[in-house]
Amino acid sequence: MQNIEIKYWIVVVSKDHIEIGKKLGIIQANHGKAAPMKRLNSGDFVVIYSPKIVFSGKELCQKFTAVACIQEGDVYKGDMGGGFTPYRRDAQYLPCKEIDIKPLLQELTFIKKKESWGAIFRFGFFEIPKNDFETIAREMGILK
Predict the structure, then answer these.
(1) Average pLDDT along the chain, 144 residues, taken 10 residues at a time
(2) Which residue ranges form the domains of the chain, and what is each CATH number?
């Protein structure tokens, strides 16, 4: 059997939507597109960054709000109602605290331009280095 390297990811999701994901034990990204979910492997870790409190609202959150570990199984479609059937993966959410991103900006290497730090999050889904994951996870109380 092939040993697959664990990868670390950021998924951008509003706080209200990640609460739904936690209840369902799933992760989805980029408005339900399949491609991001197909890049994930079981055992990968996903950090959730929430730019806003409510998806359609204006109130800012700007926090890392959750961390999940991708579970065994394939990408599948879920029915969210109203004809919306996004692609998703099963995920186990880890107990953690939410943290503000701003105190970590200087430490996070995936944010190249510190003065326009929010730009990278427009991608909605991207891989990060292990050391950045560990920095975030320590602050969220997952790692010591």
Answers:
(1) 82 94 91 88 97 91 98 90 86 97 96 93 95 97 88
(2) 8-137 (3.10.590.10)
CB-based contacts of 19, cutoff 8 Å, min separation 6: none
Here the tokens at position 34 are 């399949």
CB-based contacts of 37-42 (< 8 A; 24+ apart in sequence): 37/75, 37/87, 37/88, 37/89, 38/75, 39/9, 39/125, 39/127, 40/7, 40/9, 40/70, 40/89, 41/4, 41/6, 41/7, 41/70, 42/70, 42/71, 42/72, 42/73
Residue written as token pair 């996870």: 137
Q: What is the pTM of this model?
A: 0.92
Strand 60-70 and strand 87-93: the pairing is antiparallel
Give the pairing of strands 26-27 and 87-93: antiparallel
